[in-house]
Amino acid sequence: QKEVEQNSGPLSVPEGAIASLNCTYSDRVSQSFFWYRQYSGKSPELIMSIYSNGDKEDGRFTAQLNKASQYVSLLIRDSQPSDSATYLCAVNFIRGGNKLTFGTGTQLKVEL
Amino acid sequence: DVKVTQSSRYLVKRTGEKVFLECVQDMDHENMFWYRQDPGLGLRLIYFSYDVKMKEKGDIPEGYSVSREKKERFSLILESASTNQTSMYLCASKDRDEQYFGPGTRLTVT
Lengths: 112, 110
Hints:
The complex is a heterodimer.
Chain A: E1 4-5, E2 11-14, E3 19-25, E4 30-38, E5 45-50, E6 54-58, E7 61-66, E8 71-76, E9 85-93, E10 101-102, E11 106-111
Chain B: E1 4-6, E2 10-13, E3 19-25, E4 31-38, E5 42-49, E6 56-57, E7 64-70, E8 73-78, E9 87-94, E10 99-101, E11 105-109
Parallel strand pairs in B: 2-11
Antiparallel strand pairs in B: 1-3, 3-8, 4-5, 4-9, 5-6, 7-8, 9-10, 9-11
């Protein structure tokens, strides 16, 4: 079992819809969680971080964390074609020291 | 704003050459990382450093070495480049929590 799992996609949503990206992780004892956006040929860009259970909103993005169920999700409201990218989930496991463990990413396509 | 820079965006080298990839961060971060990213394999950690002159192997250190003589600079060295080291190389810098990536170097070994 991979430590951080994401559905590779592609996930296709129409413009203006809500895109829901999910990530599960293996270790219940984890301290911080991150979402990165990566456009084709570019490096990952940090878009959200979340540290405690519940929701965290930033503009059109909402990160949701449920430590009991070991999942973290990213919602993108009013999806735009410019949101088309691969979204990487990353977890800082306590036992992992200062290293992040990354999922392989979910490709999102927002269609006109 | 955190800034992580890498010495080259694109690099073409011949098999057997020694290759240096440089990374510089301007936020006084303790931790720095080198990854490679290949289609279908995701991000793979090569080496990381949590302090000057300190280094630890990541998941795929074979064929690579690193150097961290100053806090802001972390170098990746390919001692003898091989074609299977053709990849996108990403440097990252991290404070206690958040990690930031440089723009990446696309290395082609012919």
